[in-house]
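pinging the channel bc i need a second pair of eyes. not urgent but kinda urgent?? the chain im working w is below, pasted from the shared doc
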Amino acid sequence: MNSRNHPAPFMDPHFNRHELSDRGRNPNPFPPPPHQNMNDGRKRKHQDHFAPVAKRQRSDNSNHPPLQQHYCALHFSILDRVMADHSGSSFLDFNYPLPSSHNHNRSPESSPDFIDINPYSDGKASKQVFHLFELCKQQTPDLTHKEVCTRLLQENGWVSKVGCLYLTGSSMNGLGSRSSDADLCYVLHENNQKNSIAVLTELKRIIYSMHAVDQILLIRAKVPILRFKWKNCQLIFDLNVNNTVGIRNTFLLRSYAYVEPRIRPLILVIKKWARHHKINDASQGTLSSYALTLMVLHYLQTRDKPVVRSLQLDFPECFDPNLAIEVIPERAKRIPRFHSDNGSSLGLLLLGFFRYYAKEFSWERSVISVRTGRALPKEHPQWRDKLICIEEPFERNNVARAVHKRDKFDAIKTQFSKSWMALNNSLDLNAILPVEKIIDDETSCF
């Protein structure tokens, strides 16, 4: 099979092409060799993930030359392919259909895939948002590392026989930062009836036997996951089984991320803001990154002049919740660039986001619905007595169900109000988060 015409789900070149445009601004486009140890920064950041795990001795790489050599060869062959794809004069050389209204002969600068948000960077706060985004966003080498590790797992005989691995979440939706973990969904073939725990237990045995990870933990949560840290590059992976809604929302968010160039910087900065103020952890009863992302999109959809509209309403054939999993990536490629009449700068949109949730949005009466592009009334019984209601675009359950304690809810609302007032008074991003420290923390690992 020709891998270029039939890419694996986690190696779809369409979903790399936007990051390729960043290479001209990156003085070192090549990732460090796979055997090179990373800075301890990422390791320190994620050490809490493995608190219950008894640490075992790291195996000497020299004891496993076939694996190490295979890893290096595969890593650089993939990187060579990425660089070769970028060597053309157009970002539209990838083999996928575009709407007939798009001109394939356009220059990269005029194509719908070219992202240039400098025109939106007027004013101090806007420039700060843009600066933080440029330095903290996930780079092509970061994604390549994740793809290499994923492919090594997929190439195991048992893994490929039983199912197929998809790289999902912020690594693939364009909204990740350099320190983002990697989420994997293992979709079992239709004739396989194994339960999630049994599959994850077998995967744990296989991954452990590959001598490719330092730590591995099976977490028996509502959605069980296998969490492991890959050697050398210090990547944390969370692997689930058949949680296919994660694949659907990955490609939905990916489409939102690239239909309007202001969306990615806003979401990244707001996630950094929420983490800094300790309201971005569902395990602690606050908001998940997914919930925050939907909040940003809802705000942008509900402006008098929308920055973006509901993609599920405008392109129902691309985001039908009944689409077969293997069809989803192809359908998501068909979404054209959205041309908004709203010319607000990044700084003004950020300020408006805080004002909206501090002063305008009714937490008591409304449900955030990105699917419909508006706020829905809390009429259905499933929404009653819930402190924050954010509709999952496909399953339509509550993404913010973790926020069930009044004190956590009050802390979230208070932080929106405080940040709105602080930013409104200063128009300086440092009034609500330490910009340079966040950049230093994000980039010190690389």
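so The longest strand covers residues 182-188. and DSSP finds 16 helices and seven strands in the chain. — does that match what u expected or am i reading it wrong
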